[in-house]
Amino acid sequence: MNDRVQRIDRPRDWRREALDLVANRLSDARAHTEAGRLAVGLARVEELGGALAELLGNARAAYYYSAFAAQRPLLDPAIHRLDLSPNKEGELWARLTPIAGRDQALVLAGLIGEAGSMLEHTDAAERQSDPATRADAFEEWEDTQRDELQQFMRAALSAAEVALREVIRRLHVRPELQ
């Protein structure tokens, strides 16, 4: 089996995709802003927000479907409902429902807004600085935002996967046994 086929057969690594996306887009935003193109840097931060929101929704939908697949071999007709299967309505619910009382999309939007504001603040504060000081300030902005966004995405993806598996597991239990 060649490498290409092996990669396709492996489950999608949502966490790795998210972490790489954060690192790459923030680096791009930093480079543009450092070069005097703040508007382009801010656009990259906004693009990052949209891409992460889409990735998070897609991951949650995938977790929903995989939770059904993982549950199927464990079902006992004496305990579980066998008539349940994933559907588009359930997928939409999985994409949008709060997890552990938190609207992940709203939290992400807040973090992206903060990253943009801090980029503007850093640019304004360092505009008159020497190039080395300016570069250090933008590096600090990038490191801080990368750490915060990557930490959020790790936690959000993990919480969503665990919560969706648990919901699907409980959903299969016959109502009279709950």
Describe, in plain words, how this protein is organized in 3D.
The chain is mostly helical and 178 residues long. The protein has one domain. Helices cover 76% and strands 0% of the residues. The chain has helices spanning 3-9, 14-34, 38-71, 88-96, 104-126, 131-172. Helix 3 runs parallel beside helix 6 (131-172). Mean pLDDT is 92; it is low at 1-10.
Q: How many beta-strand elements?
A: 0
In total, the number of domains comes to 1
Overall SS class: mainly alpha
Low confidence ranges? 1-10
Could you tell me the radius of gyration in angstroms? 21 Å
Order of helices and strands: HHHHHH
Average pLDDT confidence is 92
Strand content: under 5%
List the helices and strands and how they pair.
Blueprint: H1 3-9, H2 14-34, H3 38-71, H4 88-96, H5 104-126, H6 131-172
Descriptive tags:
6 helices, mainly alpha, single chain, 178 residues, disordered N terminus
Short description:
By secondary structure, the protein is mostly helical. Helices cover 76% and strands 0% of the residues. The radius of gyration is 21 Å and the shape is rod-shaped.
